[in-house]
Amino acid sequence: MFPTLGSVKKSAPAETRKSRKARTTPYQATYDAFLRRLVKAREEAKMTQREVSEKMGMAHSFLSKCETGERRVDVIEFLQLARLYSKSLDYFLLGE
Predict the structure, then answer these.
(1) What are the pLDDT digits (tens) for 63-82?
(2) Domains of the chain: total
(3) Cα gap 34→28, rounded to integer Å
(4) Could you list the residue range(s) of the whole structural domain that residue 55 is in?
(5) In-domain check, residue 10
(6) CA 54 from chain center: how many Å?
(7) Nearest of 25, 38, 29, 45 to residue 71 by alpha carbon
(8) 11, 17, 52, 93: which has the highest count of C-beta atoms within 10 A?
(9) Looking only at Cα atoms, what is the longest distance across the chain?
(10) Distance separating the N- and C-terminal Cα atoms of the chain
């Protein structure tokens, strides 16, 4: 009736955050770099994730999810973040 322990088939490993981030493998490294710059800009602005989320009128978990790649950053949100951090869009996209 039930399979014995030795015959249990292993399932595929669970999807990791890294693989969920952009969901587009060719652009994964670029998106990861964007997320690193997003975190760095916030830290340089000396702001917490909660402070940024509140200033944007979003739930307190908003920025945490964006920075980990659990949630994608909308273009309007991207513009707001750049303004809050006093950074150019090129800083996030090109590292300049």
Answers:
(1) 999 999 899 999 999 999 99
(2) 1
(3) 10
(4) 27-94
(5) no
(6) 18
(7) 38
(8) 52
(9) 64
(10) 62
- Residue at 48 is within a domain: yes
Residue type at 13 in one-letter notation: P
The per-residue pLDDT for 85 is 97
Block residue for tokens 């955050």:
17
Show the tokens assigned to 38: 């997003």
Q: What's the rounded Cα separation, in Å, for the pair 51 and 76? A: 18
Q: Confirm whether 40 is domain-assigned.
A: yes
- 46: DSSP letter: T
The answer, yes or no, to whether residue 58 has pLDDT greater than 60, is yes
Per DSSP, helices labelled H in the chain are 17-20, 28-44, 49-55, 62-68, 75-85, 89-94
19 within some domain: no
Q: What CATH number has the domain bearing residue 31? A: 1.10.260.40
pLDDT of residue 6: 52
